[in-house]
Amino acid sequence: MRLKSIFFLFVFLIFSDLCYSQSSKYDKVFNETSTVLLSSNPEKALRNTAYLYEISANNTERIKASMLRATLLRQNGMRNEAVIALKRADSLAVLDKNYNLQARINGFLSTIYREYEIYSLGKVYLQKAIAVSKKIENKNEMYKFQGTLSQEIAYYEMYSSNFSKAIADLKVGKKKFELADSTIDKKFHIAVNDELIGKNYLSLQKIDSALIYFQKAEKELSESESSKSPLKGFIFNGFGNVYASVGDDKKALLYYQKAEEIAMASDFFTLKQELYTSLMQFYKKTDYKKYIEYNELNLKLKKDEEDSRKSNTDELIKTLREEQEQNQSKYQQSRIIIAVCCFVFVVLIALVVYVFRRKKYYTSKLSSDKTEVVYIEEDEKPKQEASKEYMSEATENAILEKIHKLEESHFYLNKDISLNYVAVKLSINQRYISYVINKNKSIDFAGYINELRIHYITDRLRNDSNFLKYKISFLADLCGFSSHSRFTTTFKKVTGVSPLTFITDLQEERDKEKKEQGE
């Protein structure tokens, strides 16, 4: 999913709506920070957000500074700090009863939690954003926000593989954008929606519908004020995926090349990542050398991004600590005054108590109260499971046969495979599939998929000597694992040895056989 591109659009709408005339000093610092320093000098940008908050003339400016700070922290992987900044902004928006900003802040929070796959919490803030958006008095502002919010709603549906529902939500959002006035680039926002609709139709294997919406997105983008946006690269990549799915490799490559030109020129990380993934899937079936080339490019892209983010994060953490030290120094005098006042108050209380005790003449007796102890008897017998699976042997065997037949298609090599996918593919309830696998394979669904992947790759290693030359990372990706480490761990769990040991042993065995044959 294209999380970052949608997020940037979301932030753009947030800040574009807040950009009205303010103090020239505030505007100058804010514009420099948001347009230049946010990506080129994160450390200085973070200092500027603190400065902007200090010189703010009203709560709206403070909210704007806090949201800019949250944007910077989030794009450098500091989620918790970003959430703190947004919650501070939300408290100010609630205080001012500014429903427009409340809705946007909650939408922002939903996006952050979704990006980090904390979906349950993300949905809580999504519902808050939806509820508050209905209270926005300015209808035009409401339409713009709700149009963007429909994309956020769609992503949650896409996570659950509810692609049809996602399409319906995006079409509702498109209508909201059409109701807004010309103060926003409606063509651009509608193009974003239609490109995303095309993706969902592609996931549903409705190729004709996908093609229509990618064509709509291309036309709308060309007529927009942002016709040179990297969005064009995503659209071209969508065309490439469409034509690749129908076997028109020539057209597919043409559009992939166009998308790659835009990705290189814009240096847009998310576009590169999505394009490389598409090209890997394309060449996986046609050209192993090209597949390896784009797999290496994709791995390098991720590593460079992680290294850059780590470097920026280290600098930001250092800046945050310096800010804390400055704040401690700044309020040291106030703390001393408070401490002195507390001491005086305690002394006065002590004097009052002393005088009271001197005046009061009594004798105290110690008494003990009987305390009734109530013992609660607990049933120590373990609760028996209330529900059991009841299934006839014929039904169980029929499902098992279908599963075995599906295995022949190597479905498990798909990185995005899920129990829901298999249930839809076989037209069988998820619970039944899980039950049959658990009973007959003595393993859960995830373990079952991973075992199939490992058995597939060990079979290829035994029967194709070329596979002995490939890198472990390539083998991991080939059989559907998302990371080298998880592949290695699973491989050892299934075979009893590491991938490297397995390959080395096979190579030695083959060398021995060749030697014996030569003799």
Automatic annotation (TrEMBL):
Per UniProt, residues of the HTH araC/xylS-type domain are 401-505
UniProt keyword Lipid biosynthesis present: no
An example molecular function term from Gene Ontology annotations: DNA-binding transcription factor activity
Which positions make up the signal peptide? none
Q: Which PROSITE patterns match?
A: HTH_ARAC_FAMILY_2
Q: Where are the bilayer-spanning segments?
A: 336-356
| Key words of the record | DNA-binding, Membrane, Transcription, Transcription regulation, Transmembrane, Transmembrane helix
Q: Which domain of life is it from?
A: Bacteria
- Kindly provide the name given to this protein in its UniProt entry: HTH araC/xylS-type domain-containing protein
Name the source organism.
Flavobacterium crocinum
